[in-house]
């Protein structure tokens, strides 16, 4: 027979297990709500450049690619520009970097978000950075490989972003010009038709370094 002491031990173990599960869940939820801010590549006090975007930004080892230790990668796979708006303060503004490189939008197109909303989100991102004296650098939404319908929408968005950046005196980097042809992302630069490979990242990084050296002097 199981005595009262054994019963209490079994009950206590169950409660402890439940508490641990609840604790783990709360930590995960906190990470989602804060944009996983605690996952950092270096001391946030030293961050001067933030690479902010979706999985395409996340896929680059930007510290190595740019050859400097003051870079933070804040890339969020699967996120739309609406998500980036929500995460801007915690993952960029609060770090007080000098420059923020923005990339995103292909997920918006993929899930059918109206372009007007994506445009509005970009205005919020750009204006929010300018308000806090952070230099925004908007990078073109990358084409996909052999996806003409997506390309039409990407072209529309990029034309808008280029014009808006000009109106605000903001830097715009056309990465598509280096990685794409008339049909979209070149086969030699993509691993799955959307995400890019190391060769593409190195070309992209060269454009960023050129801007930092020649225009931003940083």
UniProtKB/TrEMBL annotation:
GO terms for biological process: lipid metabolic process. Residues 52-203 form the SGNH hydrolase-type esterase domain. Keywords: Membrane, Transmembrane, Transmembrane helix. The lineage of its organism: Bacteria, Pseudomonadati, Bacteroidota, Sphingobacteriia, Sphingobacteriales. It comes from Sphingobacterium athyrii. Signal peptide: none annotated. This is G-D-S-L family lipolytic protein. The chain crosses the membrane at residues 20-39. InterPro entries: Ester_Hydrolysis_Enzymes, Lipase_GDSL_AS, SGNH_hydro, SGNH_hydro_sf. PANTHER family: THIOESTERASE 1/PROTEASE 1/LYSOPHOSPHOLIPASE L1. GO terms for molecular function: lipase activity.
């Amino acid at each position: 027979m199981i005595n009262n002491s054994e019963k209490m031990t079994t009950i206590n173990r169950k409660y402890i297990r439940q508490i641990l599960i609840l604790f783990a869940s709360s930590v995960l939820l906190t990470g989602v709500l804060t944009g996983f801010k605690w996952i950092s590549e270096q001391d946030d006090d030293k961050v001067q450049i933030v690479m902010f975007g979706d999985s395409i930004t996340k896929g680059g080892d930007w510290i190595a690619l740019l050859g400097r230790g003051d870079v933070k990668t804040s890339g969020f796979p699967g996120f739309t520009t609406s998500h980036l708006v929500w995460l801007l303060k915690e993952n960029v503004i609060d770090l007080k970097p000098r420059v923020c490189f923005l990339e995103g939008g292909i997920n918006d197109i993929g899930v059918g978000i109206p372009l007007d909303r994506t445009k509005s989100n970009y205005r919020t991102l750009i204006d929010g950075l300018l308000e806090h004296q952070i230099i925004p650098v908007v990078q073109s939404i990358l084409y996909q490989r052999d996806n003409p319908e997506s390309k039409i929408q990407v072209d529309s968005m990029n034309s808008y972003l280029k014009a808006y950046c000009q109106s605000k005196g903001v830097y715009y980097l056309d990465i598509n010009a280096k990685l794409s042809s008339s049909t979209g992302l070149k086969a030699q630069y993509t691993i799955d038709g959307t995400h890019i490979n190391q060769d593409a990242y190195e070309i992209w990084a060269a454009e960023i370094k050129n801007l930092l050296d020649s225009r931003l002097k940083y």
